[in-house]
């Protein structure tokens, strides 16, 4: 495992479940879609574990409609339309990450987001959260040919802030995040506090470091800021 670089060239985050806790916004939509169809509420923990897999997986969880069902795409679009009307209203950065970003700014280390969330949603969410300093880069699937776990998006993020991948840090709460970061040549941190499912084991992802809370993440990164 590679140690965290002192004063990294860049610190890049996955978005949902790593930098920002968006689970309650997604859970509200799942519950509303079920209520509209006369179904009972689901346990919030079940919903939280599926958030990282995207709207399609949440539709399947909410309504039992599998991806190969002809009705699935219309339901997914309904889900996304509902989400667009309320994104950023409840979501907040995980504890101490605003302070970490302020510290990165003081150290003049660029930071940003590399996410599989489409720009239609990622950009207004980031704007609503008003990080200070603002992200130096935001890479979404709209910007690349192949999203994570392919390393293309992370490499693009590094290029846009003139950062060497091997001196940069990528943090994510899903195996695909760590795979993408490792393939890009970055130092990787698994955010085990994120939206993991019961069968997920961050110990097996191959990350250089595993953190179990956002407070631990902030503390570890502050240690390498000169």
CATH class of the largest domain: Alpha Beta
- Tally of DSSP helical segments: 9
How many strand elements? 8
Shape: globular
Strand order of the largest sheet: 5-4-1-6-7-8
Given as residue ranges, the uncertain stretches (5+ residues, pLDDT < 50) are none
SSE topology string: EEHHHHEHEHEHEHEEH
Any idea how many domains?
Answer: 2
Overall mean pLDDT score? Answer: 96
Distance between the termini: 22 Å
Q: Which percent bin holds the helix content?
A: 40-55%
Structural class: alpha/beta
According to CATH, the homologous superfamily of the largest domain is HAD superfamily/HAD-like
CATH topology of the largest domain: Rossmann fold
Our estimate of the beta-strand percent is 5-15%
Radius of gyration (Å): 17 Å
CATH architecture of the largest domain: 3-Layer(aba) Sandwich
Query: How is the biggest beta sheet arranged?
Result: 6 strands, parallel
């Amino acid at each position: 495992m590679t140690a965290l670089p002192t004063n990294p060239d860049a610190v890049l985050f996955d978005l949902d479940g790593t930098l920002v806790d968006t689970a309650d916004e997604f859970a509200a939509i799942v519950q509303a879609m079920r209520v509209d169809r006369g179904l009972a509420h689901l346990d919030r923990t079940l919903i939280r574990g599926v958030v990282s897999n995207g709207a399609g997986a949440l539709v399947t969880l909410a309504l039992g409609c599998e991806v190969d069902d002809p009705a699935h795409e219309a339901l997914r679009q309904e889900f996304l339309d509902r989400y667009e009307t309320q994104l950023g209203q409840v979501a907040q950065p995980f504890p101490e990450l605003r302070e970490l970003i302020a510290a990165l700014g003081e150290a003049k280390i660029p930071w940003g987001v590399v996410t599989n969330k489409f720009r239609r949603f990622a950009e207004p969410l980031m704007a609503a959260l008003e990080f200070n300093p603002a992200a130096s880069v935001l890479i979404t699937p709209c910007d690349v040919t192949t999203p994570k776990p392919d390393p293309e998006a992370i490499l693009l993020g590094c290029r846009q802030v003139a950062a060497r991948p091997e001196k940069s840090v990528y943090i994510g709460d899903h195996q695909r995040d760590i795979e993408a970061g490792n393939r890009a040549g970055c130092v990787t941190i698994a955010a085990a506090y994120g939206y993991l499912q019961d069968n997920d084991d961050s110990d097996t992802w191959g990350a250089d470091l595993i953190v179990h809370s956002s407070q631990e993440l902030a503390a570890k990164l502050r240690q390498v800021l000169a």
